[in-house]
Amino acid sequence: ISDTISAYVLTEKKALQLQASSTFVDVFGKKRKAGEQWLVTLNDAEIHIPDVDEKVIGEVNITTLSSRQYCVVLDPVDRSTGQQTFGSRELRKGEQSFFLCPGESLESGIQQVHILDSEEALLLRAREAFVDGEDARKPGDRWM
Q1: What is the pLDDT of residue 13?
Q2: What is the DSSP string of the chain?
Q3: Residue ranges of the chain whose pLDDT lies below 50
Q4: Which of 75, 52, 72, 51 is nearest to 63 (CA)?
Q5: What are the backbone angles phi and psi of residue 9, rounded to the nearest 5°?
Q6: Computed over its alpha carbons, how large is the radius of gyration of the chain?
Q7: Backbone angles phi, psi at 64, to 5 degrees
Q8: How far apart are CA 18 and CA 30, in angstroms?
Q9: Of 59, 58, 67, 77, the residue nearest 110 (C-alpha)
Q10: What's the CA gap between 93 and 72, in Å, rounded?
Q11: pLDDT tens digit string along 10-43?
C-alpha cells in the first residue's frame, strides 16, 4: 500500500474541483484531457473518491444570491457546451445558487441592487454593445 485516499462527501453547498493529471475516462464516462479542470457536485455523486488520474484542487462553496442581489461572472462557462467563453461577462441576478466553474470569477463580488426613490434616476453608460428592449446600445452611449 503506497497511499490511502479518503472519500470526499459532497453536499448541496460544497463541490469538489478536480484536475486531470493525464488523459483518461472518468468514473462518469466522460473523457478528460490532461490539465482539464471540472467540478463534481452532489448532482453527480454523494461521495467521490479521486481516481489515480485526478488531482484534487480544492473544495468549492456554493454562491447564493438573494432577490436583491446580482453579480457579474467573468469568463463564464457555456452550460450547453461546457466550454469557457473567455473575455465575456454574464449577469446573474435574483434568487439563485450556483457553483463557480474552474476559470470563472466574480467581477466585483456580490452586489446589492439599487432601489430608487420616485424622485431619483440613474445616468447609465454602456460598457459594451447590447440590445436594451428595442434600443441598440453601443459602448459609450449614455441614457437615463
Answers
A1: 95
A2: -----PPEEPBTTEEEEEEESS-EE-TTS-EE-TT-EEEE-TTT-SEE---TTEEEEEEEEPEEE-TTEEEEEES-B-TTT--B-TT-EEEEESSEEEPPPTT-EESSSSEEPPPPPTT----EE-SS-EEETTEEE-TT-EE-
A3: none
A4: 72
A5: -90, 125
A6: 20
A7: -120, 130
A8: 13
A9: 67
A10: 9
A11: 999 999 999 999 999 999 999 999 999 999 999 9
All three cell numbers of 26: 472518468
Check: CB of residue 84 under 8 Å from CB of residue 75: yes
Q: How far is CA 1 from CA 4, 74, 121, 124, 140, in A?
A: 8, 43, 68, 63, 63
Contacts of 99 (CB under 8 A, 6+ apart): 15, 39, 41, 60, 62, 63
Q: What's the grid cell of residue 103? A: 476559470
Q: How far apart are CA 16 and CA 40, in angstroms?
A: 5
Residues 6+ apart with CB under 8 A from 131: 137
Residue type, position 51, single letter: D
